[in-house]
Amino acid sequence: MKKIFAIALLLGSLPVAFHLIANADDTNGLEKPKIISYAPSAVYAPTGFDSNDNTEIVFEGIFPNACYRVGLTYFNVDEVNKKVFVTDTAHFFENTMCAEMIVPYTKDIKMGVLEPGNYTVYFKNSRGMFNEEASLPVKVAQNPTPDDNMYAPVENSQYFPPKNGNPAMLNLIGAFTNTCMQIDRVDVVQKNDSNVIEILPYAKIEGDNCTEANPGIPFEYQVPMENLTAGRYLLHIRSLNGRSVNEIADIK
Description:
Layout: E1 2-7, E2 20-23, E3 34-37, E4 42-44, E5 55-63, E6 68-78, E7 83-92, E8 96-98, E9 103-112, E10 117-124, E11 130-138, E12 154-160, E13 169-178, E14 181-190, E15 196-205, E16 212-224, E17 231-238, E18 244-251
Parallel strand pairs: 7-10, 15-17
Antiparallel strand pairs: 1-6, 2-8, 3-7, 4-5, 5-9, 6-7, 10-11, 12-13, 13-16, 14-15, 17-18
């Protein structure tokens, strides 16, 4: 069985300011941008998914100047042959003078529930060829519940690198949805030969007279990021609602 999707992923993080210098020629009206295939600079495939999870991958790239904008991302999942084919596009504004600056971006692709197996992820390059970029394992679910464990309802995160002798920290931000909910523990899992660090914030409910909390009870929880191999990693943080919080960070 094959699944084919087209998604508008405007999740790109574009921290570099855009500045249009000049139009080369606007006498004939505005031209539409050229849609091109654009290959990522890095692909991140988390390893903790099973066959009842909303499987996802994350990728990032760098545009060479401000004439580029993120476009649509298309993907095709071949569950029989265990392959994922991704075509990411960019909008390129031709005949335009743009600021010479790099423009980084980040996207994620949520592929839904997949059959178990070890998938190979391919991305199309600018020449129309598909390059193998990542391996995406999907394990067999062991029970019919949404997750084997209850995760904390994390909504956001912020990584703080080491500073002034203090260790690196990852700040988890969210809101508890039960008056007795609290963080039990947070596991930080770094596997060999992987560019993904999994953050597993386990939650528990303890106490008496527990009730639903609506609105939720805000919380922040700091996780030490110590004894990790240096490099650029996806921090893949599981959350209660079945989605994940993803942050790319340079671990020092």
